[in-house]
Amino acid sequence: MKNNNQVKISKIKLSNYKFFYGSFELPVNGKNLLVYGENGSGKSAIYKAIELLTKDNFTDLDKSLNIFADNEKVEIEFEFTNKPSLVITSDVKQKPKGYEFLNGLSIFSPLLDYKKLLKVHYSSNINGNNVNLYSMFRQLLKNYPINENQKLGDIAKNLTRYLDELKRVLENDFMNEVNNFLKKYFNSDVGITSFETTIELEEDSQKGIPCVFMNVDYKENEIEKYHTFLNEARLSALAISIYFVAIKKLLGTLQEESLKILVIDDLLISLDMNNRIKLFEILKNEFNDFQILFFTHEKELFELYKNKMDWEKYELYLDDNAYIPNVILKKGQSEIERAKVYYAKKEYDICAVLLRKSFENILKEYLTNKEQRDKNCNVLNLAGLVGKAISKSTGNNKVLLTKLNFDRKHILNPLSHDDERAIYSEELKSALLDLEKLKSLLPSKNNS
Q1: DSSP strands (E only) in 221-367
Q2: CB 174 within 8 A of CB 214
Q3: Measured between alpha carbons, how far is 412 from 355 in angstroms, rounded to an integer?
Q4: What is the distance between the alpha carbons of residues 268 and 38, in angstroms, rounded to a whole number?
Q5: What is the rounded distance in angstroms from the CA atom of residue 238 to the CA atom of residue 243?
Q6: What mean pLDDT value characterizes the chain?
Q7: Rounded to whole angstroms, how far apart are CA atoms 399 and 407?
Q8: d(CA 359, CA 223)
Q9: What average pLDDT does the segment 319-344 reach?
Q10: What is the tens place of the pLDDT at every residue in 38-51?
Q11: DSSP state at residue 376
């Protein structure tokens, strides 16, 4: 259950930081955040700024000064609900007192991007063998407690003991949970069977290299070199499961209040649409008490996710017409929300086009992919989708769909085309309200 008094980020303000010249504000208002950013629009700079919250010390901030801001300073401000704002400048070398609620972020490491996932299958190999995961797990689990007084990182200098403890933690505390995660959310036929920890000699230097190897099976058959056998989707599912389990288990070791955020940046590059929907199920089920900050450069993914959660939605576009590149920040509204704006402006033709588009999107959420095609496998138009939806629905939903089908033919279509018949604004408003009602009532195929 969500805690309404839980601290959350309410605003991010960047001044002369990396891409952003001058001041840029991103209102979050304590909600989940979904951001689409085209390449070069500053999305990664926002992600990097949030990453500073996981640090105890702030160094070399001047190196992040925007190249056009010669005589100015970098300033990053985070506003929080129920807590004082944190302002980071080059003069602030350490996290000030009063922000202990941020300390846990360095422990459960809540920022994930595709580069972190790649470490599960593209880490350096030793002598051409399996992927060496030592560096990844050393960083990921450095704060994992092994007894009342020690964490894994505390014994890292005693390499033999460290590797023994790491193997015990991975096999006893993590392995089964990762495998359950894979089965529950990805219906995976892949599983981890064991971990090997050892010290191997590097061929060229004869230097001892600590190694952690992960043994994986596919349909209960042991795999040699899983990183070359498994496809990208299975490897990504494996990596996502490892990191998400680690975040939850490390968070569970905290004794004090913590800002609970999960920051995701282009995590799903190699996942197909089915697994992208499954990732949303993970966020909804496993991280429902977190503030989720989700960044993507894929517009299709933004459109898929934007109506599935109560987000603050923004789109970032590069404005490079001026000498100094800038960002265009667009509030990500749904078609119905945008239609309301144009209705208020009495621009009824644009309002109708948006409502027609919304009607089609709602029906596609309701109907399965098979139901969206005719007997010859051709994609149905809006009239065909409405017919399928009416035949599938019952009760109030059927009545509402039938009424909206009438509106489609007599209001939305004429306003969307060159048609001279008279349209009354109250009829259009009624269609708008009915569509809003339908969206709330009609179950999505992904949630039914």
Answers
A1: 221-222, 261-265, 291-296, 311-319, 326-331
A2: no
A3: 7
A4: 16
A5: 9
A6: 88
A7: 13
A8: 48
A9: 82
A10: 888 899 999 999 99
A11: T
The CA distance from 179 to 195, in Å, is 13
CA 157, distance to chain mean position in Å, is: 36
Q: Per-residue pLDDT for 88 more than 70? A: yes
Q: Which helix (H) or strand (E) covers residue 277, if one does? A: helix 273-286
Looking up tokens 């990805």 gives 186
Cβ(10)–Cβ(16) below 8 Å: no
Alpha carbons 155 and 66: distance in angstroms, whole number: 41
CA–CA distances in Å: residue 214 to residues 132, 139, 217, 243, 258: 8, 16, 10, 15, 32
- Sheet strand arrangement including 326-331: 111-113, 261-265, 291-296, 32-37, 311-319, 326-331
Residue 53: Cβ-neighbour burial (10 angstroms; 0-12, 13-18, 19+): buried
Task: Order across the sheet with 208-218: list the strands.
Answer: 190-201, 208-218, 221-222
3-state secondary structure of 255: coil
If we measure between CA atoms, which residue out of 330, 334, 310 comes closest to residue 33? 310
118 membership: H or E segment, kind and range: helix 114-122
pLDDT in tens, 50-87: 999 998 888 888 899 999 998 899 999 999 998 999 99
Percent residues over pLDDT 90 in the chain: 53
Q: By 3-state DSSP, what share of the chain in percent is helix, strand and coil, each rounded to 5?
A: 45, 20, 35
